[in-house]
Write a structure and sequence with these properties.
about 220 residues, about 30% helix, five-stranded antiparallel β-sheet, SMI1/KNR4-like, alpha+beta, about 20% strand
């Protein structure tokens, strides 16, 4: 993919239309901001079938597609929080858990009642001192949206020489353009070869594609 081939604003907007748009965004984003996806970056149908047999349930189509497409790409799934491998998927209080915060302070899942949907909504659950107060709360309206946001945010959180971690009181860098809304409590900003994510108006992280762009950022 040439640098000019990836129109991220258009791809982000298309993601909201359904899972095919989400997977196109992940493919384009991975190639533009890292390395193109390869068949080795995903889990196999046999591994996903084994997970279904172990759990005694059917995985949603969108979840299987995401795992097959990029489930093994750590830079898109596990730079900070962790996408569970198929043999780590488990059920907790009526939901299939597929992702965990890196210190176990939150989990993301799909309600068992929604597993029959091809692209079901997702839920989140904080880890509280009082376990009786823990509840699954709505997260993204589609699993594919949650997966695309995960891929983008985990890449920005990759700890390497091209990443920038801002202080809590830092302001959005000058000269950036806000991108289409994508992801719960997420705002995205872009400039020449740079991308910045603001989460909950409190936590900000950025990434550049080149050292020159990093210097400018």
């Amino acid at each position: 993919m040439n640098d000019t081939d990836f129109d991220m604003p258009a791809a982000m907007a298309e993601t909201l239309r359904g899972r095919e748009g989400a997977w196109a965004l992940v493919r384009g984003f991975a190639a533009h901001w890292g390395e193109p996806l390869t068949p080795q970056d995903g889990f196999t149908d046999a591994e996903l079938d084994a997970a279904e047999q172990r759990l005694g349930l059917r995985l949603p189509t969108a979840l299987r597609e995401a795992y097959r497409l990029f489930g093994r790409r750590a830079d898109l799934t596990s730079s900070q929080d962790v996408l569970l491998t198929p043999d780590e998927l488990y059920v907790l209080d009526g939901a299939l858990v597929y992702r965990a915060e890196n210190q176990g302070s939150a989990h993301w899942g799909v309600l068992l009642d929604d597993l029959a949907q091809a692209d079901p909504p997702t839920v989140a659950r904080p880890d509280l001192a009082d376990k009786s107060q823990e509840r699954w709360e709505p997260w993204e309206e589609r699993f594919s949206t949650a997966a695309a946001v995960m891929a983008m945010s985990e890449k920005l959180l990759e700890d390497d020489d091209l990443g920038v971690f801002y202080e809590a009181d830092d302001e959005i860098p000058d000269g950036l353009v806000e991108l289409p809304a994508l992801g719960r409590d997420c705002r995205w900003f872009a400039g020449p070869d740079v991308l910045v994510l603001l989460i909950e108006e409190a936590f900000m992280v950025g990434r550049a594609r080149t050292e020159d762009a990093l210097d400018a950022l």
